[in-house]
Amino acid sequence: MALACGDDEGASEPDEEGLQMCCELGARCHPGPEDPVGGAKQMCHALGHQNDPDQCRAEYESCLAVCVGDGDTEHACL
To answer: pTM of the entire structure?
Structure first.
């Protein structure tokens, strides 16, 4: 059943905080040449770019712990 225009019943607001977490992970976690392929930094960087707020929330703290000191360059979301 299609909803009428303007009827947002059941619609939810985007998880802005979770999306910000994704952006931060994508910006701060950049694997370097010394990091293993498929390693934690690469996984966290890819996670950030997938823009899945639930996943970013779940992995945020552990990714930041791995990526400490990364992301010193300017990024649109930081």
So the answer is: 0.73
